[in-house]
Amino acid sequence: MPTIDQVVHDIKSIKIQGATNVALAVLDALSHLIRERPSISCYELTRIGERLAFARPTEPLAQNAIRYVSQGCTNDARERIEQYKGFIEYGKRIIPGVGAELLVDGGVYLTICHSSTVVHLFEEARKTGAYFSLYVAETRPRYQGRTTAKELLAAGFDDVTMIIDDVAVSLIEGRRGTVDAVFIGADLLTEKGFVNKVGSLAVAAAAKRQKIPVYVVSTLLKYDPLPFSPTHIEQRSFEEIWPDAPDNLLFYAPAFDYVPFFGNVKIISEVGIIPGRQVKTATGKRFPFIFDRGYDKKLYYGKSL
């Protein structure tokens, strides 16, 4: 089992990537820590958990895990870790089926970045007999869209088209016919919008102009109850864009976009398909522990943990 420092490093360097993988890595690290140190205090377990979960700031699925586990320290921490894993597993199992009915035979759909839940949703829709076409944005600079394309091809899809990110808007505008809907994941949900890979804002805004629905495929466990600030958007190294760039060249490399809940944005979640602006109410009913005021993330933003 890797050390806590190693897990933190692997999350920051995106060796461990994807919200679910990060959350599970954090929970597994805590489970291992409890086995090694059965008498560890709730306070120390929570602080270590926060260090792991805040290795990257836009990982509320992992951060809410710490909120949930810390409420049961220390007697039932192990049980609550397994319960939270169960919440994640339930969402991944139920959400694809909730959204599958939206995809129809002959439809054309666009996705950006990589979300295993989005891929599973496409698979569930195909099981219903719907045959549709998919456009996959490659998602620079780390090309997560290639992972999406590979998974779709491995699942038997034979009408998958890769595009560079800049082509997505022109497709939505009608360059090659109609895009019927956009399906994307989310790293973070807030009361007024969501966070996803950079490039998502342009896609959602173009879809709004064309009155094309945008479906955010996400568990409500990714909800962040605190006010969002653009300063929370992670800035990545220039080396991801141009490893051998000339000296003195400046870079602006945000990893994510914040996308407001435009009227065409809905969330496909474990409680059904809901308008974006209903996410706070829906989350409070499903996972009330997320709104525990004893846990204030603002203390950790911007700190080196």
What can be said about the biggest beta sheet? 7 strands, mixed
Number of strands: 10
Give the overall pLDDT as a whole number. Answer: 92
Could you tell me how far the N terminus lies from the C terminus, measured between alpha carbons in angstroms?
21 Å
Spans of at least 5 consecutive residues whose pLDDT stays below 50 are 296-305
Q: Which fold name corresponds to the CATH topology of the largest domain?
A: Rossmann fold
Describe this structure in words.
The chain has helices spanning 4-12, 19-36, 42-53, 60-70, 77-100, 116-127, 144-154, 167-172, 200-209, 279-286, and strands spanning 108-112, 133-137, 160-163, 181-184, 188-189, 193-197, 214-217, 256-260, 265-269, 272-275. It is of the alpha/beta class and 305 residues long. It folds into 2 domains: 4-92 and 290-299, Four Helix Bundle (Hemerythrin (Met), subunit A) (Up-down Bundle); 95-287, Rossmann fold (3-Layer(aba) Sandwich). A 7-stranded mixed sheet has the order 3-2-1-4-7-9-10, with helices on both faces. The chain has a 3-stranded antiparallel sheet with strand order 5-6-8, with helices on one face. Helix 6 links the parallel strand 1 (108-112) and strand 2. The longest helix is centred in the N-terminal third of the chain and has 24 residues, at 77-100. The model is unreliable at 296-305 (pLDDT under 50).
Short summary:
By secondary structure, the protein is of the alpha/beta class. It is 40% helix and 14% strand.
